[in-house]
Amino acid sequence: MSTAIEASELQESIVRHEWDQFQRTNNEGGRAACQGNWPTFHQMRLSQFLTWPTELQRSYADDLDEADRVGRNLVTEKYGRMMASTAPEQYRETIEPYIPRLSDERVARQEAVIARQVAWTRDFRERYPHLGEAMRVLTTSEDTPSKTSFETYLRGELGTYSDRTLGLYETMVAAKAAAGENLTEQTILNTVRLGGFDGLDDAEAQLAA
């Protein structure tokens, strides 16, 4: 089997595993509409994993397997952690006591990554304003009970990673920063290509039309 096929199968298996956990995530007020939208879920999540090195993909796949083994749901936890900002009282009462506590050192490491990615996303939105308008709001200060920012979403997601996965993620972010690359731009490029556009300029132009 070729390396490219193996990589594709790993990425697809991660997206499918997340989708399976997403299907077991209980949403207040009933099942969310996005829980029935596999094509969009697949496009958005695959766009992210396509930017990751194989070692990071494998480590996160192991996280999902371990979560199943011990009865955790990383997707549920991710959305739960976001509520620290979007519904803080409910988070303190019904979520925080039941999810793993993050050490101060772990939180500081995550916040350094988040600051870098928020800066990347701000830069991308300035250069591609129409694509930017289609994205989440950017910062936690813009959160509402019904609207979750890119910053808060990322904070929730990073909080579910094992220490090994977070370390590999930090390494990836540092390498991209050193190379002058923008992770948000790479992710959205994958998104628009999976959506049938030739690239970012094509997608921006069509959104502007």
From TrEMBL:
InterPro entries (UniProt xref): DUF4125
Name of the molecule in the record: DUF4125 domain-containing protein
